[in-house]
Amino acid sequence: MAWPACPASEACLSRMRRRRLPMAKARAPKMSASTACTDGTMCAHSTVDPILRRAPAAKRILSSGWTRSLAIGSVAGRTFLIGSSGSHGSRLQSLWMQAGWILMAFVGGGLFCLLLRCFVRTRARYMRGNSHLEVSCYTVERERLLEYALGVLTIGCFLVFADETCELGENRRYLHWKHGRALEEVTCAVMLLCFCLRLFFHPGLDHSCPRLMRFLTSPLMWVDLAAMLPTLLEMLLQKYDIFPNLIWLRFPRLLDVILRAGDGEGIGVIKRLVAANSSLLMISVNLLCTMWLACSTVHYLTEHDNDSFFWGVEPGYQRYVSIPSAMYYALIDFNGEFPNADEFSAPWGRANSMVICLLGTYVLSIPVGVLGAAFRDHVSRNFKSEGDQGVLMEPPPSRAWAALLVSVVVLSTGNFVLLTTVYQKPVQEEDRAGHSFEEGSWQRSLLAPCRFLDVLLALPFLLRWAGRLVWTQNVRRYIFSIVHVADVLAWLPAYFLLLSLLQHGSCLEHTGSPRQTSLARTQLALHGLCMMRWPRLDGVFGGIFHDLKITLVANKIIFRMTLICATTLWLLAAVLMYYAERNNPDEGTRSHFRTLPLSMWMTALDFTSEAPVNDHSAQGKAVHALIMLLGVGVFTVPMGLFASAFRQRLDERHAQTLGRSAPGPEEEQRHCGRRVSETAFALAQEQYRSMSVAFSMLEQERACGVWRDVYDVEDKNLMRLRPGTWRYKCYRLLMGKTHPGNGRNARWLQNAIIFNTALCCFTSCVETLSYFDDCSKSGEFDTGLGFVWLAEQCSSLSRGLSGLALLCSLGFLAELGARFWCHPQPWALLLHPTTLADLLALGSLPVTLAFLAGAPVGYGWMNLARTLRIWRLLALERFVPAFRDVLGVLVSRGYQLLQVFYVLLSFWFMMATYNWYFLHSEFEVESEDKTFACWYSNYWYAMQFTLIHMSGDYPMTEYPVKVRVVHMCSLFLAWAFVTMPAAMLAAAFHDALEKRRLVAARQRRQAMTKIVRMLRRIILRRRFRQVADQALWAHRGQLTKVGLARLKYPGLARLLRLLHSNEQYHFVLGTATVLHVGLAGLRTIPELRPQAVVWDVAMLPLASFFMLNFLGRLVTAFMNPSRSCHCSPLRFLCSYQRLLKLVALGLYFAHLVYPEDGKLLRWSCAAQMALILHFGQILGTSCLLSLVWSEIRETFWVMCFVSGTFWVLSSTLWYLAEDGGQGMTDMFSTLYYTCIFLLGEWCSFDFSPAGAGLSMLYSIVGVGLNAMPMAAVQDALTNLTDMGAYHVVMERRKILHSHSGAFDSNASNSQNADWRPRKTELEMQIWSSLDQPMV
Length: 1335
Prior knowledge:
Blueprint: H1 10-19, H2 44-54, H3 56-62, H4 65-72, H5 78-82, H6 87-126, H7 140-164, H8 180-201, H9 211-216, H10 219-237, H11 251-263, H12 268-276, H13 278-303, E1 310-311, E2 317-318, H14 323-334, H15 348-364, H16 366-382, H17 399-423, H18 442-445, H19 447-457, H20 459-471, H21 475-479, H22 482-504, H23 514-528, H24 544-554, H25 556-581, H26 587-592, H27 596-607, H28 618-658, H29 665-670, H30 678-703, H31 716-719, H32 726-734, H33 744-767, E3 780-782, E4 788-790, H34 794-822, H35 826-830, H36 833-842, H37 845-852, H38 859-870, H39 883-892, H40 894-919, E5 926-927, E6 930-931, H41 932-935, H42 939-950, H43 961-970, H44 974-1018, H45 1022-1048, H46 1050-1061, H47 1063-1083, H48 1092-1115, H49 1129-1133, H50 1136-1153, H51 1158-1167, H52 1174-1179, H53 1181-1218, H54 1227-1237, H55 1249-1282, H56 1285-1296, H57 1305-1315, H58 1321-1330
Antiparallel strand pairs: 1-2, 3-4, 5-6
Helix pairs in contact: 2-3, 6-28, 7-8, 7-11, 8-10, 11-25, 13-14, 13-15, 13-51, 15-55, 16-28, 17-19, 19-22, 20-22, 22-23, 24-28, 25-27, 25-28, 28-44, 30-44, 32-34, 33-34, 33-38, 34-36, 34-37, 38-53, 39-44, 40-42, 40-44, 42-55, 44-55, 45-46, 46-48, 47-48, 48-50, 50-51, 53-54, 53-55, 56-58
């Protein structure tokens, strides 16, 4: 059997994407004679033989016939991947590439979970309970010691196994240990001993249970047997390398051993935590699957005929040719990775990608947050925090000494950055060797002074170290502490640098002399260690590194547990990806996975939600999909927990500096169980005091006969104006809805201002289209917005848009003039940020007037004027008071933010220096058509790439081994440090909104006391009593109407209970939904379309069942008082969920009428994905989501305004900085790319210097601001579920459709009171939100 034609190299495709080359320019890699047959196709044996010669470990896998198919790449069957010669083989291979990964990942994973559940249930029948070993010869301590020894031997065997997959040339490897076989046999013997001891001495089962049942009911025992069975058989047969190496199957047991050493439960703790949070996990998985299928379907509809998505040589594979194939690539996008961002069609394909950016990636992260919170709660309940015991605290320095140290460190950093600019000439793309500056140039003359200056700057740290040794009380403890090591590293490298300079002088690297090169690199390394002085500013910034150490010590148990879980999954996934992709026909993919160390590197990047290589085989897609769905979350849990714990400690210290106490239990109960931060509570108390002063002023004015609205106290400037004057009325009118006392006119004016601003911004964005760059051309122009313009209309459209922008600008001018006239302090208004935004927008008036007058205006001036008008968006902050509150909280958190930025800068400069040192002269390794010496020759770009990598994105992966090792270590912690500033900004924003909520709650409570006093007078009136009685009777009448309807139609009442409360029916509905959606997705595969009758026969009963379910819910809607119906069939039909289901079923039956219509078939199959909404009926997610919305709606739009404003305004800077480069030809394209950048995904990275600075700003601040809205949704969903809201909703649902609730509302209320008393305000809120409406 022959391989089909080899697809194009992934490296070539990646270069094509980065460089924006047309698809036709991508060429397939050349195949050597050893890997190509005479007919131009790849031979399977010719592909496998080189690996057999290189890797003895591979011989174990491939030597036997029954395992050869696994090596070639087939898991479910060799026929699908290899196929046969001709079109039939190509069809089978294409079918397997599209659908095989789903069968292996989800069907195989589901069967595995079902088998595991059978194990657990069978084992539960024979378990006696938790007990300890009672055999004197085999105690718990001896068992643990033996398991630790086995773990060490297992790690050694795995290293030998990984080394056997490598070949460095001339029969050399990294370790090349000759006794690897003996080590494996010893490990197998020890594992067999542990296996027998567990089998015979474990008392966890009943005495009546045979030991065989112990083996049959333990999945880990089966895994242990499979791990050691190949080695045992080889030892018995005395024939080696005949079975596959399954050493990696021992890692699950090793994970269980380490977890049992930490908490005593072992791997069962994961099962228990998942079961405890199953409700929230089911809801989050439902939301994820719904969004995933929706976005995959839209991608399929918009990109199925896009020729840019073909990969491989003719005929190639289309990435979005079917829904199953689109699901895999959409899942990559959901992980925040957009490798094909340039190829998406405009506007719908890019719009769908932006929806994934704004919503999908954060929905995918909800299960991660649930697992992280569960791990943290488990450890906090079962283990005692060790606090800061044994951590040496550095005393704070004086102000003068602190200023000196900060100055010295900043000068040292600047001095080294200056050295990097004069060390060698800038490396160009075509250079293959470095060049020093000429003799006598000013750059070369600065080398020696820079190095001697670094020696002088090390003297303060030398004096500090000597003073510590003299004045420290416990010298021994100081010497053996990390603080002493940091003190020594701050000055000792400079001492050795001085010795080298005095002995050899200032050496140059690129002189042709090996000795000079070696000495120059040594001096450069000693000079680069000046970055180790950054941690010595710890005392200056309040002991922030001391807090880091305390955080690590206090949470070391949870860090150890999560890190071990993440590492185990990483190693298992690396082995699976090595087996799946090392013989991939694509040379680019095969080169990334040809050895196990390379596979470990690429899999580590995949675990950080990075997908630099994504065109895998079917089995590779299955493993990669499981990594993205499960592994990424587990891998990022330690980093998230570390960042959360560290921020919590900083919040505690900040609250201590404010000198305020935390809210008590009565405060939290008053706010519906909401978790109120200490900072927000302290700020709210300050606001209370300022409000009391304002209210006292209000009383004084009323005593003088001046009557003012009570809401005027919220604005200091309005309090300075006398009520009733024209200036007062104008100022209050311009406040819009922000003043609660304003009427309809103020609201209309606010809406008009917002519409004018939005119209101006949209007009300015349209003017940036390249269509308006040259109005002398002819033909048609595709705007990318869904419509086409003629070139003859260019001039008239340009003038019309400019005139519209002029009218909008005049409206801005009139508004600004009115604000200056009515403001009590115009000079203060001039310095306000919103006024500056108005002035920037009005700065475009001269250019616009000149253009309309016919004067020649340059392209640059026109672009500047268009972007300045967009900055008017910032002026809308007057109506959404977000920035002013955040600014106030940031001022209070200024020192805390400075501390966090100091930690980030410390690690950032150290990592950037490390990368620059090893890569500034690396001419042998290339990435993206450039050598690493070209990428890293400039220290500014080294800082950019380092920060991008620290944020988890790797657009370049071909790093040398010495750099990869450090990067793999930084993957576990770097994210936490990069996200800390953004997390602090988000915390400041949350505190501002929480403070506003607390203040508003207190105002409502004060207002309620006044309203109650008024109502006590009104309630005595007979008319009011009649109105109250009428409302009460109307409410009871509706409930009675429902009960009477259920009594009148008992069959429909039983049907209602069946559809909404019967668990067996819900199981059938869920199974049918999965089958129908799966069949509809497979129906879109082109290779399966000829079997149309088979698909229609299989799907017709399911569609009929769904139609009956829909009709049953419609018929019983008049007696269903839940939120989805409100006793109204029309309300039931008007829901978007029901409309989508109705459209899906209608299109399916229309396809049955017109089966030959290919477009109708495509739309019909795509519409069937909407039936996944049936799980909302099963799980009841709509009620919980409505509660989440009611919880966050006050703050969600404010957060969206902040993140959206930052996105749009920063996009204008990107547009000006890149000037049409990197695909940013207009504002719409720039908004598309920056939306992806705000996820931390850099589909483009070869920016200008200004663009590099913006990318660093995005990595530090923008990613956190973009995540704030969905983070609020996730936080509210987690809090409501933790407080039992989901269980209350489900109980309410059962009662509404129960037998007693079907007849009498009073019986329902009594059952509700007996079943679950409404004691908390949270439950009162939930029940009231779910009550029936009054008519």
